[in-house]
Amino acid sequence: MRWLAVGSVFLVALALAVLGWLSGGWVWWVVAAVATALGSVGVYDLVQRAHSVTRNYPILGHARFLMEEIRPEIRQYFIESNTEGRPFDRELRDLVYDRAKGNHGEEPFGTQRDVDAVGYEFVVHSMRAKPKPDGPQPKVRLGGPECTKPYDIALLNVSAMSFGSLSGNAIEALNGGAARGGFAHDTGEGSISVHHRKYGGDLIMEVASGYFGCRTDDGRFDPEKFAQRATLDQVKAVNIKLSQGAKPGLGGLLPGSKVTPEVAAARGVPVGATVVSPPSHNAFHTPIGLMEFIAELRELSGGKPVGFKLCVGSRREFLALCKAMLATDITPDFIIVDGSEGGTGAGPVEFEDHVGMPLTEGLMFVHNALVGVGLREQIKIGASGKVATGIDIVKRVCQGADFTLAARAMMFAVGCIQAQKCHTNTCPVGVATQDPARARALVVEDKITRVYQYQDRTVNSALQLVSSMGLDSFEELTPRRLFRRVDPQITMNYYELFEWLEHRQLLTRVPDGWHRNWVTASAETFDAVEVADLIEPLEAARELDLDD
Fold first, then answer.
1. Total number of domains in the chain
2. pTM for the model
3. Quick one: which of 140, 158, 317, 424 has the most CB atoms within 10 Å?
4. C-alpha span between 421 and 345 (Å, rounded)
5. Per residue in 84-140, pLDDT tens?
6. Which of 420, 454, 479 is the endpoint of a domain?
7. What angle, rounded to 10 degrees, do the helices at 444-468 and 390-398 form?
8. Which residue segment(s) compose the domain that 14 sits in?
9. Does residue 399 share a domain with residue 259?
10. Bridge-partner residues for 338, per DSSP?
């Protein structure tokens, strides 16, 4: 149909030329020449491989690039016309585009930030700044005491995005970029497809409440199907999804229009049926049950790192998990903290905007909880939720993370233009669609390079920032290195702003601000336990044997 549309432009040009010849009017010849030029542009658009928009919308797609050229004048229109009332991430998207195309993201005329605004954050450089180190990117080892096949993960990786939500071409581009750059690609809850396998990039296999790819017919966990996939050499780690930052407390949703035979085969669901994941797991129901499930998956996978992902909600429930780790002596190899800033193509606006703990608060809480029970050294922490730039990586490490993952930025790298059509199966650039005619717009080989270049330049930006601070490695980043303006006259660093627990402090002298959640948390239930006389709890708690 695209070729027919372009061909019709040439037919119009021919008709205009004939009309000019018959009438002798030069105007018709000029219009015919313009139509011929437009038809030539259309042919070029269909065969070029760099721009997904014009591959799907020849000639007309150029209007987007024209609007980008004048966007300072039309920016407010787009913000006001966004039906969900939330502005597009234009500056972030542009920065990712620049890096994905091989540029470094420099922009003339300085900062666009209000450095005097309350909440503004920054790191400080050193008069002993160092050159950025050469050599391969630094890695973080995932693997606790029970892990026999540890994995060295990159500082920035592809966060969870499923095949089904994304097109096969998008998945191949992401995994090909991961293979080329040596970073990890989380499969999302949609399981491992042929598109994940094509380029051989390292995979983190995600297991969510729907157990797609490892489920029985009635939707329960199937150990044999899990082992078949988890023992693949390409799978380097297993991630249990407890909740997602963009829609915590809800399961996944894939419209039936996107459940093609290929998607259905990967997930183990009927073709064409809308797929709704349960809001919680049925393989376990208690904190101890989760630890036992982690041990089971680690054994079934052949000793690979197993962890879980969550958007922090109830502090007490997470402390219950910590108590379960102590009670069972089973610990995850990693925990990924997903912030409520995360995006999704299938979630209610109210959940995206108002439910779940933001990444900064959630990340610091998880870090402190693990320090407080003495398990931080053996459990690595990942951070996801609008991570996109080098300074994002540096900030998250200062706040307690060991590594990061990005979803939205990786989608920008493969060509997402934020059309917000993810749930309709009509993505105009072939990223979030199962329509083969639309998916063809995304040229895999071109986008592999862009994913690789985006990740490489972003991590190098983070390395440059660390060197400018006079540091040798990310291990030297601490809360003291990150500053926040708390009012127009006062700036404080994170160590001064927030409470930071000491090693095993929750087991020896529980801080007042942690007391109620700690004493009401139980390894045996996610519910709050009854504690006698909570009116004056401090003295009572200090009489408890908290190691038990």
1. 2
2. 0.84
3. 158
4. 8
5. 334 446 667 778 878 888 776 665 555 556 777 889 999 999 999 999 998 899 999
6. 479
7. 50
8. 2-67
9. yes
10. 384
